[in-house]
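Entry:
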Amino acid sequence: LSPLDHPHESATSLPARALALFFLILTSPILVPAALLSLIRHQPFLTTRTAVLPHDPGLAQRVITWQEIPTLPGVLRRWPTLWRIVTGHFAWTGNPPLTPEEATLLDGEFEQLWLHTAPGLFTAPEAEGCRPPWDDAARAHAALFACQPTASWRWKTIRHGLTTLH
């Protein structure tokens, strides 16, 4: 007999998860202006989204919810994603999270490689100049990153993400 649930494998190492927790605590003061802006603009403080997690072929699709803070600019709106890095569901670098509906639009084995790597706070297609809605170029970058996430590509992705904090 085997377990019914697929074992959860962490998308990041323990030191990377600890670093995410450190940054989550260190940057928590940004929540105050974000909350005030949401009150002033009559917008929700958090928006909840669903993301498909990497899974083995033939197994049921795994999904998780994650949040964004819409009143914050750029990549700062993804601040709650740091918690998903701490829990091991997201990674510092990866592909943009896709909803189950978006995942069904991926055609063929090459495009479905997008789903072979964890969603990331900083994403490879964005570092290569792609923006949502995700086009063929984004799908190509996501698939290539899933196959060969080199250290230099990861650092390029992080540098790009840090330059878009504003």
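The helical segments are 14-26, 31-41, 81-86, 100-104, 108-112, 124-127, 136-147, 151-163.
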